[in-house]
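User: These chains co-purify. Model them together.
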Amino acid sequence: MTATVKKNIFRIFSLLIWLAPGLAPAVTPSELSNQAQADYQAGRFAEAIKNWQELSEMGFLNGDLYYNIGSAYWRMGKVGQARRQFLIARNWSPRDPEIRQNLAFIESKVEKPRPLEGPRAVLAKIPFYRFSLNASESLVCSAISSVVLFGFLALFRWKRKPAYALLSGLAALLLLFGLGQIGGSGTISVSGQPAIVLSPKLPLREGPLPEAATQEELNEGSLVSLKKSQGDFALVKSASGKEGWVDKASLGEIP
Amino acid sequence: MRRKVFSLIFLFFATFGFGPRLALAEEPTVHVEVDSDTVSMDETLTMTVEIHGGSAMTTPDIPPLGNFDVVGRSTSNAVEIINGEMSVSKTFTYVLAPRRVGSFNIGPVKVHIEGQEYSAAPVHVTVTGDNGGGGGQGGQTYTTQPPGFPTMPTMPSFPQMPGFPPFPNSGQPQRQPPPSADDKRYSETFVTAETDKKEAYVGQQLIFTFRLYTAVSISGAQLSLPDFKDFFTEELVKERKYETELNGRRYGVNEWRFAIFPTKAGTLQTGDTTVKGSVPVRMQNGPFDDPFFQGFAVSTRPRTFSAPTIEIQVKDLPPAPKDFTGLVGTFAMSSTLSKDSLNLGETTNLKIEISGKGNIREANLPELQNLDYFKIYPSKPEVKLDKSLQGLAGKKTFEYALVADRPGTTNIPTQEFSYFNPESGAYEKLSTAALMVHILGSSSGEKLVTAGLDDSQSPVSEKSGATFDLRPIKPAGEILYTQALRPWENTSAWAALLGAPLGFLGLIGFGRYQARSIAHADDRKRSRAFKRAKGALQGLGGSKTDFSKMSQALKEYISDRFLVKGTALTPGEIEELLRSKGVPIEVYRRMVYFMDQLDMWQYGGMADKIPSDKLLKLEAMDLLREIEKVT
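Assistant: Joint model of the two components:
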């Protein structure tokens, strides 16, 4: 074997190695989903989460996916992440009762639920959430109602028929409904940017320093309001109303 | 009965009917007497003012009774006719309750009869201190038991009612000395207070019973319980009412019963128990002290009945083991597991119950430990109290949701708990049995993640949610979709949302613009006339056609400037028009002349006299500027 032949063999071999990843069959979303479910059922929750997150990176963004991720975090004992994922799931699928039930269950473990009294207790039993829209649905609803509203307004201006005014009024109501929900279902009861505590007994410090005095310890999974960031710390307001600094890495924002 | 009625009728007519027609027999006299010259604080005194003779009697004038309260009063009349002579008497009866101990004079009592004053000498009364224990001002205190109580000296006074458990005799109950058998005070109303023990440990249950015995009705009764300052208390039963017979007399009994738990060692006092109320008082030695008037001559007066404090000797507990949480009594413990075989991720419920007699609220379990195979979710302990006449008992249930997080077989270890048993005087340890649990792997598929959930369960109802964990995950095939809008959808939606109002506003704006254009077309035409004429003149030269165009441009200017329709104006019309619009005479004559010249140059062939293009344009522009000055 001459040197030229050896060199050509080496080149072909190198080319095959370089092309190998591309030639290897890619994992389909369906396979990934099945694998995630199998991992979950086998108790390999971390692997299941990884696979589902890969699906989300591929563009499969929906409440059901985050629901599953939240369930896996719960099984791992990560209450904060579980609550965060279920909150994200609720943002995607606000009308899904199972998401709400699981979220309520987790929240009952994190914070003692306050019993409602009087008319609020009655109102709480009415499933208003069945009329909730996610951001995409709100946008589409608003867009359609906007076109209808201004279309009928233009017709009314031109023809002066009361029916057009009535229809434009209805469209205006629909537009208000859609716009009202464009920012989400609005059920996270904190002012400002909500965030979830991801670490157990997270110290709420008086200053943005590791040696600053601790005011209180925040429970994992508790909801805080994020005010601002400074270095590795974030200024938050806890559910008890105290403001203080926490390690930013221990917070999970809710998109 | 008939005799009584006749007596009353006769009395009425004797006083008011025949009186005026009969002569009075004697001189009026006033007589005052009291039923006893010595009275105790807890008794009443009856004072009688008797007036004989006279016809127009007034009520007696008694000096202020500062040392007595008048708790009852009555009057009576009597008429006697002997040998045709009438004798009238009137009796005023006062029931007096002493206010303070001492010797006092009541009177002199004066009466005015037919304008003349009659008086009686003062009476002297001595008020002694009361005999009972702890009575308050203005009231009487009766303590302990009724007279002739069969077993008084040796046993507690509780009557043994059917179904009523006897109290254990641990220690001698406190008693006041029994009253004498002929003391009427105790025959109608009295109170008792008792505890079932006089010695106890800290935290041990004692039963405190207070009873009010009454043979007469008490109105407005108010119970003041002891303060139980050094005790934790729990009311066992609400006020209990029943009847009993003591010494041949029936009594109504009102009973209050409490479980009390000493909170510290030493000699503790329960505190006084009192009942205040108004009791009926029958008038004595008065005009109505006759069987005929029984039932009428009854008044009421406020009384206070009190039972004295009870002294309890409380011993401290011996040094306690580590797992002792303060529970004293007799108790038992048990544990159950909802299922002992489960899949990974499923939940089983561990229930530990502590039950027994004592203050069960004090029961507490140490944290569950060594449960490596589970994640533990404790529930809030549930306390169920069982209150009875025998004391306070109950059950405290501790529930833990155990979520299996590792496959294998494991033991839920024994849970231990210590309490103090006062009967044995020692700490006793309770323990549950170890419970074995099998945690299976993932072979059960979807069932694994249902985690003990069925469709009827809801996390909102925690009562039924003992086995609730999470809803099952979504199937693999159902999560492969997206709820996010694709880029073009997103852009289109935003475009529609924002474009619709913008388009609408655009339509409105265009409409307004059009309307304004129509309304201001003449102005626009006028304002543009000069500009258009200037533009037309710029490109012209000195040819014949250019003269025509220049003439046409000037006519169009005049037409636009003064809003005249058409441009076929004759020089005469132009002159007339300019004059009418206020154009100076030299200007419009120059204009008419210039236009004539243009026509001549165009048709007359006076080529040698035609000025240069530049001059023509200058003249034309100069004329236009002059006309522009006209407003």
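The longest strand of chain A covers residues 223-230.
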